[in-house]
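User: Hey, quick favor. My workstation is busy. Could you predict this chain's structure for me?
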Amino acid sequence: MIELNPVSKGIWEAPVEAKSGMLVPARILSSEALIAGIDQAVVDQITNVACLPGIQRYALCMPDAHRGYGFPIGGVAAFDANDGVISPGGIGFDINCGMRIIRTNLTVAEVRPRLEPLIEELFNTVPSGVGSRGFIPLNKEEFRKVMTDGARWCMARGYADDDDLDKTESGGCVEGADPDAVSDQAKKRGVDQMGTLGSGNHYLEIEFLDDGGLHDPDTGNAFGVDRAGQVVIAIHCGSRGLGHQIATDYLRLFVANASKYSLKLRDRELAAAPIHSADGQAYYSAMACAANSAYANRQVITSQVRKAFERIFGLSWEKLGLNTIYDVAHNIARFEKYSIDGKAKRVLVHRKGATRSFGPQNPEVPAAYRGVGQPVIVGGSMESGSALFAGTAVSESDYFGSTLHGSGRVMSRTQALSKIRGDRLKSDLAERGIIVKTGHLKGLAEEAGFAYKNIDDVAAAVDSLGISSLVARFHPLACIKG
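Assistant: No problem, here it is.
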């Protein structure tokens, strides 16, 4: 069992001596309350990550960390762009699973009387569930454009405006995408899924800001969140079958070619390739295709949400104020520059169940937010709602511009199913004023609130460390689960 040593308030470390082969320390960012419940599997996984070639400074875990495939969920690692590796396990199967939050001019008092027809309209407008198919017919050539252009493809086809792209991480397009690096099987799985939520922990949720929920009024005002009762929409989904198949394909390839690169793997789930190898470059290009598809997917869903609100409220979405606050990825690898040992270094930052948290004046932050920092969206459970943070300079200087992405699970889906039935959970939520629509009651039970860490606990952990600053807390009104 690996011991974690307290370094300072909120930081625990496994030193390089903790495990043979570690190149850097492994650090877990947490709190006294949360660290006590950390799974030893998380410690094992993040110390394995610390053994990967080219890793810089630390292998990091965020407060929402729990066991994942290879990397823990909540894992962050930066690799030297010249001598490091790229690992699908450090990105995840649902490439660019991410979150978008949309503001409105509406209040909870205005929405609640129309809530049931509204959630019914959204449920019928945004396909959800395992194997769900979108309403946009794409041929092979058009799908290639989605993979290379991302949200820009949406702009060209009337599903987005300039402001949507401006308020999406990297303008909704990762450069370097090459559809020829994507297998036919992956393309087949993704081509019919544009504008769909999928299943598992993905959701579309109507939330509101209650009294006392606005923690930083000045930053909230910059983000367009400025009054108690204000309604927002949260969207959580990713690249669906396309990303899953890309991860599967390249994990298989990397395992088969491990000896070619003389990589000694502590865990087959950490299969990797040198960034500048042919395999590493191909995977990055394929990953970018999936990331772009995910940006486009959330944008198409946004367009559908706007249409649903227009039909129910009889006003244009512009008058209703349905503007994107931000869209951020939390399963991705990106080339970025940081000061390491006093020198600027280009690294490939893997974020798995973690998001960017760029501070004020960073040129990657939309101009409208550059004075306060990047919006950071943290999803909770369907019983707890979401939190909105702002990125900080501390995150950039100390943690590769990263922070947490959500509450983080505390029990498996199987464990959750043993404790409650989906129909009972749905009725319990209804009694508490939360409407849930789903086509899969078993999946609903898997996502019960008690299966997740308390969002306020993980929010407090990052806020106290200064890696992102709490702006607002939203509570659920209605939720669509796949």
